[in-house]
Amino acid sequence: MSRPGISVLLPCRDAETTLAECIESLCLQTLPDFEVIAVDDCSADRTREILDRWAAHDDRVTVIGGSGSGVADALALAAERAEADLLARMDADDIAHPERLALQNRFMLERRDIAACGTGVRYFPRAILGSGYVRYEDWLNSLHEPADIDRDLFVECPLAHPTLVVRADAFNDVDGYRSVGWPEDYDLLLRLHRRGHRMANLPEVLLEWRVTQGRLSMWSEAYSAEAFRRCKVHHLLRGYLPPGRKVVLWGAGRVGKALARELLRHQLQPAAFVDLDPRKIGQTIHGAPVQPPSCLKDLRGERPYVLGAVGSPGARRDIRAALDRFGFEEPADYRMLA
To answer: What is the pTM of this model?
Structure first.
């Protein structure tokens, strides 16, 4: 077989109930020039049997065994075997649109300035979706160009990992996947961004993203809100907070308090909290006073860096509008977190 255009990295563990739909969606891809590196990560069910049967009938498929130490290590193992210049992610419980690989391949050929791209997604089955999934889906599907990714980089992971296509040279430039106790996908994207690699999302919905109780993100500590927060702060402190400027947190609620605690773990004391709630103004939280937004006018001469620490998209929109009125520029003077 000639060198493939795309290498699909497919980690699998105990996926027998969903793997057939995943495989069918890859077999139906309109782009024929790809390979699949499937890693059976010590499954206790029929996953390996299903993968071996697929590989026996399709010479584009290679099946290898994993160590059972987790998805990050399985992905790293698959990437080592990949031969293409483009690496694509796929999960064993999701379904790819037939045009997914073709459209992402074409996009990456046309946009040489882009190191990684994702696509729009649709969660399923819709009947069991909570409001949080719907908000995240809407937010993800609103991010298209590199400027959108940069703006919302620290809100949540801005590319849906099962839709990721990344250039192998950019992937290798940041040493690929690593297992460090927080989400391996978000960690990879933040390292890519820190090194100046640009990212984008195709607007088309090209992946059906399955929601099940068994999803790793629902039970693993590495995908908890606390782990995401540790990941965000780790990277914020490595090139995103301008040196010598005080840090102000806008939001004295649950999100802001948790962010302050994590910053303090790294010996960074917030100068103040900003909040609209008159019941909070005048309090001291984690050693920082809670003040009204007007305090930023007084602090502007000191050029504080503002972190908007709120969970609601509407609140982020209002904070951005207020900071813009005060003459703050994003991301030079502030960033939004959630």
So the answer is: 0.94
